[in-house]
Design brief:
It is built from 18 helices and no strands. It is mainly α.
């Protein structure tokens, strides 16, 4: 990366930090600002930042960001509390997510996108994960009942990790289909190693790392200032260790995060504060890169069928499966629509496209890339603008209902952003 490009990116982060508090409760979101700024300084704008999607620095940034996000998102979800009193996100993940992938596959096959079944399923899987950061006003707004905002928070924290093995297997199958020398036996062997050895490495590293850290901190051997860097070390060891033995590093990072958070328990808040600052910085840079490098791709090759799919991906492809998954929960149709709409597509889809889809190098992979870029761009705008007003209006509606399924008490788990603020508020009360 050239010095000028580094200065531009650093200046963007510094400038936004000055007004971040002022913009926190407005329709102007950080992903919106950084994507727009990236487009303005990229080749499609002023030409100050000139990098290609295949540039090594971009792939390194994407890898580090995805590893940290998968690990920290998993670590902040308390599996005990999830099983105990979070039935809504459990249904949305166990029923809604597979149905979303199935619906996305069917729509991709029906539209003239030129995708075969494997690539259609890959597109659906890449766009299945949600990103609560694009609608932060929803998951952090106290006007929205805790049960509802935690449903979206927990769903977005786990669905990217759940999507990883699906995306990896479909990408491997797409490669086996495209490369005639690769037999389906080779594909089965490769895929099996990826999804078996990855979790094994994650369980070992996450459990051992968590127990060692808990013991060291409990005996006073470990300084609190090093509890934060421990998350980077554990995530990195899980990722690299899995890759060394033939497993998938991203799956390992996610599983390690789950085990790490389960073992360290309450001490995880210090780790999450550290991951929040580092992860937030990487996320902002990723959206800037999205605007500078990926958005200009839409100027070449975009078709009406891609636009239709992107629109359906943000609406019916998610809304219908979520509605089915919530049958019998007692929540109102308004809540079902609210939970269905606030499934923004963001960071995970961008990183999947950069790390997995782009490397396939086929025409169908390029189509998946364009649809993903368009869907995320539409989501940044639509969900960013609608988050604050929709959360306020929905909060008023649920307060008027009084005691109902939506207001049932549930435990709170930290969100990806705004965790430090939540801790401060908790300490004040």
């Amino acid at each position: 990366m050239e010095k000028l490009e580094f200065v531009i990116i650093a200046a963007a982060v510094l400038s936004y930090s000055f007004v971040s508090g002022r913009l926190a409760n407005t329709w102007i979101t950080a992903p919106m600002v950084f994507a727009a700024f990236g487009f303005a300084v990229g080749d499609a704008g002023l030409g100050l930042v000139s990098l290609s999607i295949s540039h090594g620095a971009i792939h390194l940034l994407a890898e580090v960001t995805l590893v940290l996000v998968l690990f920290s998102d998993a670590a902040r979800i308390d599996l005990r509390l999830l099983i105990k009193d979070h039935s809504l996100p459990t249904r949305m993940l166990a029923i809604g997510m597979p149905l979303t992938i199935a619906a996305g596959t069917a729509v991709a096959m029906a539209l003239p996108l030129g995708l075969d079944l494997v690539h259609a399923a890959l597109l659906a899987a890449v766009l299945a994960p949600t990103d609560a950061a694009l609608g932060q006003s929803v998951v952090s707004n106290p006007a929205v009942p805790v049960r509802i905002r935690q449903a979206l928070n927990v769903e977005s924290g786990l669905n990217d990790g759940i999507a990883v093995p699906v995306v990896v297997l479909l990408a491997a199958l797409a490669t086996a289909t495209a490369v005639q020398e690769t037999s389906y036996t080779d594909f089965a062997t490769f895929g099996g190693l990826q999804v078996v050895l990855g979790p094994i490495a994650g369980i070992i590293v996450g459990t051992a790392g968590g127990r060692l850290m808990d013991a060291a901190a409990g005996r006073g051997w470990m300084s609190m200032s090093f509890e934060g860097p421990a998350i980077l070390a554990a995530a990195g060891i899980a990722f690299a260790g899995a890759e060394l033995i033939g497993g998938n590093g991203f799956i390992a990072a996610f599983v390690a995060g789950l085990c790490f958070g389960f073992v360290v328990g309450d001490r995880c808040k210090f780790i999450l504060e550290f991951a929040e600052s580092e992860g937030q910085l990487l996320t902002l840079i990723a959206f800037l890169v999205f605007g500078a490098i990926m958005l200009p791709e839409l100027l070449h090759g975009l078709t009406w069928s891609m636009a239709v799919y992107a629109l359906l991906s943000l609406t019916l492809i998610r809304l219908v499966p979520i509605a089915i998954s919530l049958i019998g929960t007692g929540v109102s149709p308004t809540t079902t629509l609210f939970l269905g709409w606030f499934g923004p597509r963001g960071l995970a889809s961008i990183l999947f496209a950069l790390l997995i889809v782009e490397q396939l190098g086929t025409h169908q992979a390029h189509t998946i890339m364009l649809v993903t870029i368009l869907t995320v761009a539409m989501s940044i705008i639509a969900h960013g603008i609608s988050a604050a007003p929709a959360a306020a209006r929905y909060g008023r509606m649920t307060r008027a209902q009084g005691d109902c399924a939506e207001t049932e008490p549930v435990s709170e788990m930290p969100t990806r952003t705004g965790y430090v603020l939540a801790v401060i508020e908790e300490e004040k009360s």
